[in-house]
Structure prediction request, 702 residues.
Amino acid sequence: MIKKCLYVNRRAPYGTSYALEAIDVVLIGSAFDQDISLLFIDDGVFQLKSDQDTTGIEMKNFSSAYSAFEMYDVEKLYVSKEAMTARGLKKRDLVVDVEVLSDNAIKDLMDEHDVIFSF
Amino acid sequence: MIKKCLYVNRRAPYGTSYALEAIDVVLIGSAFDQDISLLFIDDGVFQLKSDQDTTGIEMKNFSSAYSAFEMYDVEKLYVSKEAMTARGLKKRDLVVDVEVLSDNAIKDLMDEHDVIFSF
Amino acid sequence: MKFIIQVNKGPYQHQTADSAYQFISAALAKGHEVLRVFFYHDGVNNGTRLTAPPQDDRNVVHRWSALAAEHDLDLVICVAAAQRRGILDEREMNRLDKDAHNLAPGFRISGLGQLIEGVVLSDRLVVFGD
Amino acid sequence: MKFIIQVNKGPYQHQTADSAYQFISAALAKGHEVLRVFFYHDGVNNGTRLTAPPQDDRNVVHRWSALAAEHDLDLVICVAAAQRRGILDEREMNRLDKDAHNLAPGFRISGLGQLIEGVVLSDRLVVFGD
Amino acid sequence: MSILHTVNKSPFEKNNLESCLRYVKSGSAVLLIEDGIYAALKNTCFEKEMATAMKEVNFYCLAPDMKARGFSESKIMDGIKMVDYAGFVDLTIEYDKVQAWL
Amino acid sequence: MSILHTVNKSPFEKNNLESCLRYVKSGSAVLLIEDGIYAALKNTCFEKEMATAMKEVNFYCLAPDMKARGFSESKIMDGIKMVDYAGFVDLTIEYDKVQAWL
Prediction:
């Protein structure tokens, strides 16, 4: 049985490990042949910022994972336009190609999924 | 050596255990003959709400501790007027007698203490 | 109705484990099925039998073990999250060359696949966390 | 300058333990004294030797133990917080009638008085948490 | 498909409620639990925002969490329904899925 | 006595910075660490509030946390000074005490 799964990412990377541990769930989920979409709203958009360099805090830099998603057939990545704007981010600041949606369109996205994972 | 210690409580009770575990620190601190003041700002003012009844969530109700502070010579309890107002609380809603201070007066309170504990 | 429950925080510091426990108890009392409880992130700390809370407080870990025994509940600790945080059963202890284990009765350690599989097989995912 | 450091969160879930470690390393490198590191709330979870993080990540617990060995650091786990969360040394194990202990090398378990005393004897309290 | 949104953080402390209200659809529901219950109180600085949201969305509040924090039903805004844990379970079934704003 | 205030949470997520700025005195300092560094960015919805606060208060930002999150010094508002962990230590000594807004 295939379910439409939406992974909602709302937190910044490194301050907490939610972003890192969400990636593990997404990769495992892809192995189960589920229909997977990733949504980045609120501070979750910061996860996709390019040029992350964790040398100075000695934590694992996991930002390359987002570009690797494609190899796992995880190809639907959405970010909130309003969240980007509030944080001064442009699409070119992100490490991976994403579809930018308005918050209104995101309401529909949440609506049409069967299950919502929250990170 | 006596230090002026300010315990700053900013969190609501039960959602997290910071309020509960702060009480332990205050009681131990009182045994060390330090000059202790307690400050309740932000959601910390909710700690002092009267009529707490935790039967339905099966957690320990620790709100009686605030009235017991006096026995430990912990007598300086301050709350933010602005925090109370934003949360619709009046002095008569609180479980213990406190001094209500304006946020401006609280700036001075923080200023004159030697050490600030954050909960 | 079939539920899968995800728990993201350890005992005592956040209400997470308490809320999840009360929700699950209510669901079982109503005759629903709880297919699995999946402990992720700091939630794996719910599975240590070494806790000893004060006598006048609830014992979060014992309560999980008792609920599992009574209702044959499947309490699954995520292995990757557990390794980072030091929650081990005897098998993990041997595999990782550690000298002690601390998993509480009624819990088992397994992979994230158990979460995904549980979501596929259930009607509702309910997440508790911070 | 004499510091006492308070750590309120466990390893991995929050940056807390990482920030505290980096701050303490920098303070020691500058020749300051770190009188004590006091682990409170979920911070007590920094003191379990049963963690086994992935090879490509830092080992938060080992790093504390190594720093303690190198600089004779006093790493104190709050006993009341530790009992709630399942962090034990051999003495606590016997006292509480448990069958295993998990305290990492370089840590010791003691009371909240160690925090207050440390604050009285230090020039600065710096708190790391969530 | 309808969504039951759960909010467990105080609106004074975190942005969870604010985010939730930004994405909630007319006909869906919001259940306030744990520290989230503070959003249901009368006379707070969020009362107006809540009143506006209540025109389109069904609001529920977990009574055991409300009582633990010292508030009785009389302190809750009109139109917010109180439920116990059994009612929480019912809501997760009544709506098609649950979205937790953590 | 002067205070070094530390803020470790994103202003978009939690009220820590807002609370801190409500209580910070002229001549004191605010150090942004961990997810708190996002408050230092140019072109965000907090830029104006930060600019006002900077007239009275010294702002610092922890460079290793900034770099970890993908931002270089050019993205930071003018007037906010970057420090490393050694600089963090110096600041705790320069000011009389530290208040952590957690």
In short: Chain C has a mean pLDDT of 98. The domain at 2-128 of chain C is CATH 3.40.1260.10 (Hypothetical Protein Ychn; Chain: A,).
